[in-house]
Specification:
single chain, alpha+beta, 2 helices
Length: 102
Amino acid sequence: MPDIQITNNAEKHRYEAFIGTELAGYCEYNLLTDAIMFTHTEVLEAHEGKGVGSTLAKHVLDTARSEGKHVIPVCQFIAGYIRKHRDYADLVRPDIQRAFKI
């Protein structure tokens, strides 16, 4: 598995995953008062199957937890990651857990 580095590009409202100096994927977000809404995650075709999406998901969810923020997983990839990794379910904002079947 390649070394994947994640950075927060606040200007573009997205976390970016790099393999070396090459952009491999990103996770777009909107900041709310008490939560972070993840709206879209994309892994660039050349980097599919290298763990980029999972690394991004884990990073953004760990970051939300460390910042004390709830998450709103509008992005189906992030919602699916939370469903598979139940230890992140508590991060989903309580008023929307049902809607996302978390």
